[in-house]
């Protein structure tokens, strides 16, 4: 009988320590809350994701968060996205929350729409003219990332993911 009691006491201690370490760094909604944070955009559902975009160069314009279904043929294709959420850009780090249809595998593409024209601007030779990023932060030196490298499992509401923005 003392073995299970010791195990429960140790498990409770570990859980308390883990919560005190992780607690302050994650918002309450990322810790299992049942309601989305204020400002979550898209068609309301029981599943949402918070995207933390790091490395924005200015507070000008918008951060566009584009959600794609688990379909490589629609990824980055014109009219291929499920939804585009937009939030005001902030220098350094910008947070945005979007509803997703339900738990599953998706892909995210972000861009810093500096001029707020709601388009991803490119240079005269087709290279990006605005900052961008993808779920899982894949390498993009040789062009667009492989779809398999940006697939993101969203198993429950309240997941938080970080994307590092890249600029031309």
Description:
- The chain is an alpha+beta fold and 168 residues long.
- It folds into two domains: 1-26; 32-164, Immunoglobulin-like.
- The protein has helices at 2-22, 147-150; strands at 47-56, 62-69, 83-88, 92-100, 104-113, 132-134, 151-154, 159-164.
- The strands form two sheets. Strands 2, 3, 5, 6 and 7 form a five-stranded antiparallel β-sheet that branches. The protein has a three-stranded mixed β-sheet with strand order 4-1-8, with no helix packed on it.
- The longest helix has 21 residues, at 2-22.
- The radius of gyration is 19 Å and the shape is globular.
- Residues 1-31 have low confidence and may be disordered.
Write the layout of secondary structure elements.
Layout: H1 2-22, E1 47-56, E2 62-69, E3 83-88, E4 92-100, E5 104-113, E6 132-134, H2 147-150, E7 151-154, E8 159-164
Parallel strand pairs: 1-8
Antiparallel strand pairs: 1-4, 2-3, 2-5, 5-6, 5-7
């Amino acid at each position: 009988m003392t073995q299970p009691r010791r195990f429960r006491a140790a498990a409770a201690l570990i859980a308390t320590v883990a919560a005190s370490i992780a607690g302050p760094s994650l918002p309450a909604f990322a810790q299992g809350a049942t309601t989305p944070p204020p400002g979550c955009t898209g068609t309301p559902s029981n599943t949402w994701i918070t995207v933390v975009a790091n490395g924005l160069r200015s507070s000008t314009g918008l951060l566009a968060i584009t959600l794609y279904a688990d379909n490589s043929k629609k990824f980055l294709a014109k009219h291929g996205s499920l939804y585009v959420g937009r939030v005001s850009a902030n220098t350094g780090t910008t947070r945005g929350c979007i509803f997703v249809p339900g738990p599953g595998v998706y892909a995210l593409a972000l861009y810093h729409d500096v001029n707020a024209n709601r388009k991803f601007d490119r240079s005269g030779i087709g290279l990006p003219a605005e900052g961008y990023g993808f779920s899982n932060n894949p390498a993009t030196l040789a062009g667009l990332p492989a779809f398999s490298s940006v697939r993101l499992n969203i198993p429950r509401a309240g997941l938080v993911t970080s994307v590092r923005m890249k600029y031309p």
